[in-house]
Specification:
- The protein is built from three helices and nine strands; from the N terminus they run E-H-E-E-E-E-H-E-E-E-H-E.
- The strands form four sheets. A three-stranded antiparallel sheet has the order 6-7-8.
- The chain is elongated, with a radius of gyration of 20 Å.
């Protein structure tokens, strides 16, 4: 296969080291956490002109675009709900908690080793930070080809 050529139906392997933190966080959100569907309660507010109305979900803050809903309904939580999974340990832990077992160890020279288990299958991530190690292992568990 020639350089730059892709095989049909197969995504090119992404390079974690070449991605920004925001790109990494979005990838984890989309591939591991998968955008959450919310069925929260809508709140409707009439504007000062007495004619126009706006609405938003009291649970996640999602705003209605062009039409007002007749009743509570399922909608995707907005992307601004994504967190700093690669920088914030609490956010990274939200990712790790989706697995049955979590094993984290520190190796020399300054690398963290994370094993995430689902049933009897182990997924491993190795990185300079615990957060990155967790995210890499979780991405592998979700069939994302990624190179540290």
């Amino acid at each position: 296969m020639e350089e730059g050529e892709r095989t049909e139906g197969r995504e090119e392997c992404m390079k974690w080291s070449e991605m920004t933190h925001d790109e990494r966080d979005r990838l984890v959100y989309e591939k591991v956490l998968k955008p959450v569907v919310c069925s929260g309660t809508w709140r409707i507010h009439t504007l000062d002109d007495g004619v126009r109305q706006i609405c938003w979900c009291q649970t996640c803050g999602h705003e209605c675009a062009n039409e007002l809903p007749n009743s509570p309904g399922s909608h995707e939580r907005p992307a601004w709900n994504l967190r700093s999974y690669t920088r914030d340990m609490n956010a990274a832990w939200e990712v790790a908690e989706r697995f049955d077992e979590i094993v984290i160890s520190k190796h020399i020279p300054e690398k963290y080793h994370c094993e995430l288990w689902r049933s009897t299958t182990r997924y491993v991530g190795i990185a300079k930070t615990v957060q990155d190690a967790i995210c890499l292992a979780a991405l592998k568990a979700n069939k994302v080809e990624i190179e540290a």
